[in-house]
Design goal:
The structure holds two protein chains of two kinds. Chain A has 19 helices and 20 strands. By secondary structure, chain A is α+β, with helices and mostly antiparallel strands. A seven-stranded antiparallel beta sheet of chain A has the order 17-14-16-15-19-20-18, sandwiched between helices. A four-stranded mixed beta sheet of chain A has the order 4-5-7-6, with helices on one face. A four-stranded antiparallel beta sheet of chain A has the order 8-12-10-11. The two termini of chain A are 34 Å apart. Chain B is α/β, with parallel strands linked by helices. Helix content of chain B is 53%, strand content 11%. In chain B, the strands form five sheets. In chain B, strands 1, 2, 3, 4, 5, 6, 7, 8 and 9 form a nine-stranded mixed beta sheet that branches. Chain B has a three-stranded antiparallel beta sheet with strand order 11-14-13. In chain B, strands 17-19-18 form a three-stranded antiparallel beta sheet. In chain B, β13 and β14 form a beta hairpin. Chain B is globular and about 70 Å long. The chains are: A alpha+beta, B alpha/beta. Bound molecules: flavin-adenine dinucleotide. The site of flavin-adenine dinucleotide (FAD) has 37 residues of chain A, from β6, α8 and β12. Chain A: It is found in: Peroxisome membrane.
Chain lengths: 572, 675
Amino acid sequence: VSCPKMQELLKWNGWGYNDSKFIFNKKGVAEFTGKRYRLGGLVLPLLKEWMEKTLGASIEHKTTSRTSLNTSDVPPPIENQEFLQDLRTAKISYSQEAEDRVFRAHGHCLHEILILREGMFKRIPDVIVWPVCHDDVAKIVELACKHNLCIIPYGGGTSVSSALECPADERRTIVSLDTSQMLYEKNLTAHVEAGIIGQDLERQLGESGYCTGHEPDSMEFSSLGGWVATRASGMKKNIYGNIEDLVVHIKMVTPRGVIEKGCQGPRMSTGPDIHNFILGSEGILGVVTEVTIKIRPIPEYQKYGSVVFLNFEQGVACLREIAKQRCAPASIRLVDNTQFQFGHSLKPQVSSIFTSFLDGLKKFYITKFKGFDPNQLCVATLLFEGDREKVLQHEKQVYDIAAKFSGLAAGEDNGQRGYMLTFVIAYLRDLGLDYYVIGESFETSVPWDRVLDLCRNVKERIVKECKERGVQFAPLSTCRVTQTYDAGACVYFYFAFNYRGISDPIHVYEQIEIAARDEILANGGSLSHHHGVGKLRKRWMKESISDVGLGMLKSVKEYVDPNNIFGNKNLL
Amino acid sequence: MAMAAAESSRLGNLLYSQKDFTSKKRDEFEDILEERRQSSDLRYAMKCFTPVVYKGLSPCKPSAIKNIVLQSEQLQYVIKQLSKETGESPDIIQEEASEILDEMSHNLQLGAIRIFAFSLSKIFKRLFQRVRLNEEGIQRLQQAIQEHPVILLPSHRSYIDFLMLSYLLYTYDLSLPAIAAGMDFMVMKMIGELLRRSGAFFMRRTFSGNKLYWAVFAEYVKTILKNGYAPIEFFLEGTRSRTAKTLTPKFGLLSIVMEPFLKREVFDTYLVPISIIYERILEESLYAHELLGVPKPKETTSGLLKARKILSEDFGSIHVYFGQPVSLRTLSSERINRCTYNLIPRHLPQKPSEEIQDFISDVAYKMELLQIENMVLSPWILIAAILLQNLPSIDFALLAEKTLWLKDLTQAFGGFLEWPDNLCAKKAVRSSLALHSNIVNLVNDQVVLNDQGMEAGTTEEVVFKRALSILMCGAYRNQLLNVFVRPSLVAVALQMTHNFRKEEVYGCFAFLRGIFSDEFIFFPGIALKDFEEGCFLLTKCDAIQVTAQEILVTEKGSTIVSFLTAMFKPFVEGYQIIYRYLLKETNEAFVEKQFLSGLGNFGFQLLAAGSSHCYEVLSSDMQKNALAALVRLGIARKMKTNNGFTYAVSKEALNKTAEMFESRIPIRKPVAARL
Ligand SMILES: Cc1cc2nc3c(=O)[nH]c(=O)nc-3n(C[C@H](O)[C@H](O)[C@H](O)COP(=O)(O)OP(=O)(O)OC[C@H]3O[C@@H](n4cnc5c(N)ncnc54)[C@H](O)[C@@H]3O)c2cc1C
């Protein structure tokens, strides 16, 4: 019975690596620990004030998580001895250790993390299995059918839709099928087993000069199979495409058998594309075991950039124009003023790339424009890729468009810093949790003509709901546009509030999140751009895809998995 | 009790909230003229004017607004459409649109506002004793203006309404509203221009056929609203109510101002009901003439100047009540299927779905009911109601006694009474009579309707004069009707059914409510709730007892019940006469004009012959309402022809309704009414 080493590196009750986290040091100054990230080991003198000001948090008021798992709290496993016997015969490793089971009982939704810190799940997987190849998976699924068990596929565990939570009323043995040992990479044609984690995949391909270019913000921990199962989206989709554009071939084991296409033609007209039943199936139909994915040579040249706009409206108008001219860089993101200011608060004490942005800007702007308002400014960060000459050409084109919207180029450093922060921001929630601040992010996609209204209304709705529900401090309610398309954009929100004085914060939090989603839908936004539905957003499925649409999915499920072996209850 | 099946489908219970009659708290009034009488008008007009603004305001000049409107995707789309339809070049249509905008656009200038403030101070002080308003309402409004775009929805009884409202807002340092005012003002050159400069914008009375006009207008209003440039003000009733009864709402403008929220172009929109009530209406005599079919003079400036005589008269007090701002977001929550707007690009014009139309209508009724709730009732209104039941004259002491009795009843029904300074009944009555000496006289302790010169003149003239006085008096009694209508229709139903079975009384009530829905304001689709409210109020003043099966009139109640029945008698009788006329005298099809003049003659003859005393049947308002009700109930058909509308009545159906109305046949039970 093996416990993979990745788990040992990770926090059991928070995000990311054990050694990397935000803390307030002995002097009461914020610091980011560890050596993994560029921010590692740096002191962040402005963060404390930001937290006090924007969230009303104070370092005197601290809550602490339990430090380790109390195994006696863990619900005892529902065992199926015959199944375990069969596993041993098939030489498939498994575990019933409490730590392993709890580790795979959740993703990274706020309420899941809070349960880890202070409570216990009602139901967790009873046994973890580690197949190492497609055939192992086929065997496990066969055994699950034979013994009537429930399987929940597990990739990297970065789900943010309650997709990994075990249905509390599941009476059968729940098998968590962890794909993390399926990373055998056959022939450098990028035919890959589905358990491989994003950063490992890129590293291995990189050794031969290739990449997939698929970079979701969770790529350090999420898996190829997980991406397929959730219809993931990577930061650089403008060049490489989203996961549905990247996969050429998928193999999935279902209770009914293996589903795959018979050839690898780049496009087929053979009725509805069966890949579309697999992409986004969220583990309810089977286990994705092998994926053939497109690869590209690693780009010769990369360049970051940034543009400052006088206000968010101008910024959105500019992004829309760039999308219209179809000249978006590999990545382009526009953050609102709140995040713009937040970026400032993560400025370390000493560091070359972290020169005071705002101060420089003030001088800059006063000479260029009169009367700009630092409380309106917002910034777009850019990432260009390709051969050098083309990148420079492209860069000029984009900056020329920006100029039409009074956008001013604000340097490479600011751009780079923006992207570097994406990976560390996820660690910030754990810091907040220590100081009575709970928060979450959520996302949507929306047609261009509604982007501005949606951003404004959703933020305002959050503020209003907080007020009405007795939240005593103004919440953090902020957004950014993270992807552009011909017909619209992806918008990403952060929402956090200080819950001191509220008796049932998690309930309040959930009510507000529901209200925010209602607001998104009322503004013509989608249920999800890339996080998926899971169990968290099921209630809106019908209005999202219509009765008939839901019926179609149900009938597929019915055919593929009549006994509901893949019983995680996502989606439908 | 359960709701009739047909009713429950449109319950709208979120919008309709049962009134609380006992603990209804209303704000106190302040007189603003008092200060005007004590300090300099000039200084007042030159005061520093810095109104609070909407938090999301993007400041811009009127000319910039015009450009935003002309360049908007919405308008550009309509222009292209029209160009395709008519073959006209888009440039020419664009030019036309620009002219329409010029004609329409308001143009806020502080100078004009100051002239306005100065002259209105002078005029108002001469016309009125007091202008009283609730300052708390102003404070709420001030708050609301900063939070979200605001729509002001005043009641409409007089031209003074919007002058007064702008004046009050100026006084309290609030943004002057952009007013959607009828075009007839444009004729009043000088005042028109002054009005425009102080914020009014103009709209042609009818432009239903003119797509471009509608598009320009709608875009203009929405632009002002979305930018939070100024509160928008218009009259739900569409026109001044000549009868002082609240008119059934018009939906066009309301649907325009609701659209930005429904499309989520703004986070929310506040609707503010405002009740403006005149102790004596400036246009009272003009209205009575109009109702009797004497053509209305065009509103010219010189016409208004001729009215200078008016300036020497006393018009008593005005009460303005600013209601609680109502959040459209709250009203719409859970009611609107949000997909409606999600699948069509927002610049394309979109006809509201049936669901949305119902919602708009419910909102309109809700706002009118809120106006009604806060309309101040003066002693004179009670006097008028009593007098009309005691023609030609009543003993002064008896009148005072009855007025006091009616005061209590009105309060029990939730009416908003203002009884000046706790005057004793006699004094209050006397001062009311003095104020309205053009309508009533006190002769030898007898209060008589003022229809002098009656003896001289032809019978026609006599009838006409009498009708004038009665309609003028009626316009005051009418202000009581919307407070009284629910219990009164229960009372009428009790009399009509001659039987106390609850189910039958309800059937009759629902029938009457259906017929009178153009006459009085009922929230759509809640007949049963209205019935329950009526019964509740009657029970509360011990007039009836309701058991599981029956409704019994108490001894004390018979006075109340017969008073209430008499109060609504003109309507019951009037409609009966109108049905009789339609059954006997009309041809297959007729236009409205024929109907009005034919019915007018018919009524005149009845009155001249003394076979009826229902003078109010001569009111064109009642005549039109009765016809509209028949169309609504499917008894008459309204067809569009080249020269306006033609009506055709199904005599068979009408006959049946008339018979039920005269209690000659029992009323068919409403579908599935379970009580
Ligand atoms: C900080 C953070 C940043 C994120 N950023 C992004 C982003 O930029 N873009 C994006 O798209 N998402 C993002 N996500 C969401 C999440 O990372 C994605 O949904 C990711 O695709 C999940 O992969 P995973 O391997 O972690 O799957 P898991 O979380 O383990 O599982 C997710 C779901 O897929 C099913 N599943 C997993 N593997 C398989 C398999 N092999 N076969 C069948 N079903 C399977 C599981 O049963 C479950 O229902 C982010 C999440 C976090 C916490």
